[in-house]
Design a protein that fits this description.
This protein is an alpha+beta fold. The protein is built from 13 helices and 31 strands. It has a 5-stranded antiparallel beta sheet with strand order 3-2-1-4-5, with no helix packed on it. A 5-stranded antiparallel beta sheet has the order 8-7-6-9-10.
């Protein structure tokens, strides 16, 4: 007998929702036709005949009838199209959606072939219509196309957008007027080998000031592409960029937020080309604190395009003679950047920022063929650029918060109570105590256990950092993975609520306007501020201008969060598909792995190349019991998170890899 623990979904009865009361919420659909209404006041069951044409993801107005809900009005559609498999029954056709939240859709017969993947769009009345045939399920590339279409990603730009981009001109002398000129300085980019759009360049100067620890030791200049110079507000380019809101990166291609004319040319900080920037000049002391800064419009000319590997090799060279001749001028700036990076990493640790272990996959492709899948290298130069960008984002966010301008911030909330309870229970099951009471807010005193001191109900970021730092070596990976799952999702917000994971009071995304719309939006705000049009503090902004910026900040934040989520899910699905394709060549072979997840239906195992597969509970001999608190399956063997196991690849289906246990 196999015991499976499964939580049934309960309809919450909230006293605030009276019988017949109106509720606004989102529909959470099911392939069997019924749904749930999700709202802040609780969740209610919606029978199939009470959906009134609403679909999964729709925002609706409903009324409560007993312990159920009935949809009265669809306020906003969550999706306009979806992907599924077509079947012809003769008199009519129907499509079974790939997304299990949607039930079968009836369409006109004869528009496709049985077994073919299709895209279905919905008209204003909610009727489905096949608008594109992707090919037979299982054909080469059809699975990739299906993922791209299912997340409503746009591979091609409208003609009006491309025409507008083609009319834009290279940097002229007139464009550089009134800007700070950084063209004679040693500024360079550091990016991945396959990068084609370069948002940021860096330069540094070590200050030979011996007047004390609180004085600047480094002047770091971070130059970000001035995309707002080219993308005019409410232009075709701007509206398209808003709809996309982010670039989407796959191992074989990029679906950019902006056309190539901008993303890979005019806005990209290319080697040897004059480029317009928004630049942040930061004077940094020996503790990593910015003691003085300036934000300005600039113009630069990058002297070199470096890869992370090239930069790391220069840093690792024991003698200058070992560095290639053309790269020798960069050796001293890179050494200074490395030293500053170590200071910033120490500052990160001191303030209690959380540093999770993560295994990102690196997928090598030849066209659409997967050559290799492995864990991506994490070099010191990756950390260096990451720390510089974090510091820049913090500096910009803090500056404009104090100026009280409308803005888009990057917010990250503390973990919710129910997730903390599950994490604490799991840690206790493996003999690890999670003691917390650090400072949650910058400047606040930590809990010290003194009489009368009240212990906080939420751990501080530093408590998580201490948990990971002090974890036993053999449990560090599993504790990091489970702790990461307890975190909330970071979002874009029009108000500054702080970034929990980074342990920062002020944070935004400023450094990637080529590929993120929230960054582009705040660049516009900054440029208006610098030109005296957007500052509350200076009293130079008309009331209607401020109102416009505040409204658009809320819109940019909402759209940025929404499209970021879709992009991340699409990227993850594609990576899983490609990894599964690669592992299909190893069916029957045995690998060593780590248990990365335990559920009531089986054990997830991650291999050293980041491929993750499932040992179904049916593959385990004998009876097994799932313990939710300890996240373990117990039977003839005990399977726990972080446990080392040997598995055989027994099958691959779509993006799923199936393993079987190998017993010695």
């Amino acid at each position: 007998m196999v015991i499976v623990m499964k939580k049934n979904r309960e309809c919450k009865k909230n006293g605030k929702i009276k019988d017949g009361g109106t509720i606004v919420g989102k529909v959470d659909g099911n392939q069997r036709g019924f749904a749930f209404l999700l709202s802040e006041k609780g969740d209610l069951f919606i029978p199939k005949d009470k959906l009134s044409g609403a679909r999964h993801g729709d925002t609706v107005k409903a009324v409560r009838i007993g312990d159920k809900a009935e949809v009265k009005e669809v306020l906003a559609r969550g999706t306009s199209s979806l992907v599924g498999t077509y079947y012809d029954s003769g008199a009519k056709g129907f499509v079974v959606p790939d997304d299990s939240h949607f039930s079968t859709i009836t369409v006109k017969a004869g528009r496709s072939k049985t077994g073919e993947k299709v895209v279905v769009a919905f008209d204003v009345c909610g009727e489905g219509k096949i608008i594109e045939a992707l090919g037979a399920a299982g054909d080469e590339g059809v699975d990739i196309k299906s993922v791209v279409r299912s997340f409503d990603l746009h591979e091609k730009f409208p003609r009006t957008v491309l025409k507008e981009a083609d009319r834009l001109q290279n940097v002229s002398d007139e464009d550089t007027q009134g800007r700070e000129d950084f063209r004679k300085e040693i500024a360079f980019t550091i990016d991945g080998e396959d990068s084609r759009d370069f948002d940021d360049a860096v330069s540094i100067k070590k200050v030979t000031d011996k007047s004390g620890e609180n004085h600047a030791k480094y002047i770091l200049k971070v130059h970000i592409a001035d995309v707002a110079h080219y993308v005019a507000e409410n232009s075709h380019l701007d509206k398209e960029a808003f709809e996309r809101a982010t670039s989407v990166y796959f191992p074989f291609a990029v679906i950019p937020m902006l056309p190539d004319r901008l993303s890979e040319d005019l806005c990209s900080l290319k080697e040897g080309e004059d480029r317009l920037t928004l630049s942040v000049v930061m004077h940094i002391d020996g503790r990593g604190e910015v003691v003085k800064h300036k934000i300005c419009e600039g113009v630069i000319n990058c002297c070199k395009r470096l890869t992370y590997t090239q930069a790391a090799d220069i840093l690792a060279a024991e003698r200058l003679e070992a560095v290639p001749k053309e790269l020798k001028p960069l050796a001293k700036p890179l050494k200074d950047m490395h030293d500053l990076c170590l200071i910033l990493l120490n500052r990160r640790r001191e303030r209690g920022a959380i540093d999770f272990e993560s295994d990102e996959p690196e997928i090598k492709m030849d066209g659409m063929r997967v050559l290799d899948v492995k864990k991506a290298d994490r070099l010191i130069t990756h950390r260096m650029i990451e720390e510089f960008m974090v510091l820049t984002n913090e500096t910009v966010a803090k500056h404009f918060f104090k100026e009280k301008t409308p803005f888009v911030y990057r917010g990250h909330a503390a973990p919710p109570e129910e997730k903390l309870e599950r994490l604490t229970a799991f840690l206790a099951s493996i003999g690890v105590s999670f003691v917390y009471g650090g400072r949650c807010v910058e400047g606040a005193a930590p809990y010290d256990g003194a009489p009368g001191a009240s212990r906080p109900t939420t751990p501080a970021p530093s408590d998580f950092a201490a948990l990971l730092e002090n974890a036993p070596a053999d449990l560090k990976g599993v504790i990091s993975a489970v702790a990461l799952r307890s975190m909330t999702k970071a979002l874009y917000e029009p108000a500054s609520t702080g970034h929990y994971g980074l342990a920062l009071r002020y944070y935004c995304h400023f450094t990637a306007p080529i590929r993120r719309y929230p960054d582009l939006f705040i660049h516009r705000v900054i440029k208006a501020f610098l030109r005296g049009q957007g500052s509350v503090g200076r009293g130079l902004a008309p009331a209607d201008n401020l109102k416009k910026y505040r409204a658009r900040a809320a819109e940019a934040a909402k759209q940025g969060s929404l499209r970021e989520k879709s992009a991340e899910e699409a990227e993850r699905r594609i990576n899983d598909l490609l990894t599964a394709k690669f592992m299909s060549g190893f069916v029957g072979e045995v690998f060593d792995g780590i248990v990365s997840g335990v559920t009531a239906w089986g054990v997830f195992v991650r291999l050293s190349n980041t491929a993750e597969g499932l040992i179904r509970i049916e593959k385990l001999a004998g009876q097994y019991v799932f313990d939710e608190k300890s996240m373990s399956l117990s039977g003839e063997r005990v399977y726990k998170m972080g446990q080392r196991v040997r598995v055989r690849v027994v099958g691959v289906s779509g993006d799923r890899i199936e393993f079987a246990p190998v017993t010695e």
